[in-house]
Specification:
CATH superfamily of the largest domain: Metallo-dependent phosphatases
Number of helices: 8
Radius of gyration: 25 Å
Largest sheet: 6 strands, mixed
Strand order of the largest sheet: 1-12-2-3-4-5
Order of helices and strands: HHEEHEHEHHEEEHEHEEEE
Distance between the termini: 45 Å
Structural class: alpha/beta
CATH architecture of the largest domain: 4-Layer Sandwich
CATH topology of the largest domain: Purple Acid Phosphatase, chain A, domain 2
CATH class of the largest domain: Alpha Beta
Number of domains: 2
Oligomer: single chain
Number of strands: 12
Length: 329
């Protein structure tokens, strides 16, 4: 949805509210004058107060509307929030708690601006042991170059690992972008895994399931899921990266029982107030909009993302960088 369509909806709602308040104002005016003529001044004063409240109701959107628009368009989208996710499981090594794993998602980069520079500053300032990315780096083909500029600046002690999102596949083939990721030292997990070995601090397996559109239609696709977990010993701890949280519905996922699933895609809805969800194509898209969930006994965490799509606004839904702590239960 384009911003001007959003504004048209807001305008229509404002006109509706204005009509209702004008009608209420007229009704209260008639009542006030009737009781004034009847000599009942107490009721007259009461209705004057009510009319004042109605006027305040009318004027508030006029004053607050532009401020809300400015905040949702220019301030909150650049106000990155760092959240901490703690996951406890008996499979985790005792010293994995020392790791600082940073998750980011849905960068949707169009150019290198303040938000992108702030992202680099926030992530590098956390001094992560490893960075995990859930895909959707761009909004259009022209976004790849600035996206790679941003990724080149990220720093991690033990590497950067990512999957590809559906938007990534819309604007590039694997053959076009995988060599660039490799040159940057970023490991792309299409449908495979890697053992994350931190020496004395323990290890876990990281599996990736990229989101090439149509390959998991109807959630019955298991071929790539099998490839993603191939070779991982059953008793070892493992984390799965997916893009769309709906991928948790893929049949057979429960058989592999990862200790944690990390997802993105939904941007937290971009608008965090349910009554306003109608204004965002990303709101109310399913049961896993953002935050922590438990799916068939497996923890799922959905990152709210950094960028935006369709509606270039965020309201009560700040962009997110997640710090993940793994604790032995």
């Amino acid at each position: 949805m384009l911003p001007f369509l959003f504004l048209l909806k807001i305008l229509a709602a404002a006109i509706y509210v204005l009509i209702i308040t004008v009608i209420l104002f007229l009704i209260l005016t008639v009542i006030s004058r009737y009781y004034q003529k009847a000599g009942q001044r107490g009721w007259h004063h009461f209705t004057r107060i009510l009319r004042g409240m109605v006027l305040l109701l009318v004027l508030s959107p006029i004053v607050l509307g532009p401020l809300i628009y400015f905040y949702a368009t220019y301030l909150e989208p650049n106000w990155i929030q760092v959240r901490t996710l703690t996951v406890k499981d008996s499979h985790f090594h005792e010293r994995l708690r020392e790791l600082k794993i940073v998750q980011i998602s849905d960068l949707h980069i169009e150019k290198v601006g303040y938000r992108e520079r702030r992202l680099v500053s926030v992530v590098n300032g956390l001094d992560p042991d490893v960075i995990l990315i859930n895909g959707d780096f761009i909004n259009g083909k022209e976004g790849w170059e600035p996206a790679f500029q941003v990724l080149k600046q990220l720093r991690s002690q033990n590497g950067i690992y990512t999957i590809l999102g559906n938007t990534d596949y819309y604007f590039a083939s694997e053959g076009e972008i995988l060599p660039v990721f490799a040159d940057l030292g970023i490991k792309v997990l299409l449908y495979d895994n890697v053992k994350m070995d931190f020496g004395a601090r323990g290890s876990f397996w990281l599996a990736g399931l990229s989101n090439k559109y149509g390959e998991w239609a109807e959630y019955g696709e298991t071929k790539n899921l099998d490839k993603a977990f191939e070779g991982i010993p059953a008793g070892d701890s493992k984390i799965l990266l997916i893009h769309d949280p709906e991928q948790v519905k893929i049949k057979k996922l429960g058989e592999y029982a990862p200790q944690l699933i990390l997802a993105g895609d939904n941007h937290g809805g971009q608008i965090g107030i349910p009554v306003l969800w109608q204004f965002s194509d990303y709101a109310n898209r399913g049961p896993y909009m953002g935050g922590s969930y438990m799916v068939n006994g497996i923890p799922l965490y959905v990152n709210r993302g950094i960028g935006m799509k369709n509606l270039n606004m965020r309201f009560f839904c700040r962009p997110e960088v997640t710090v993940i702590k793994l604790l032995k239960r």
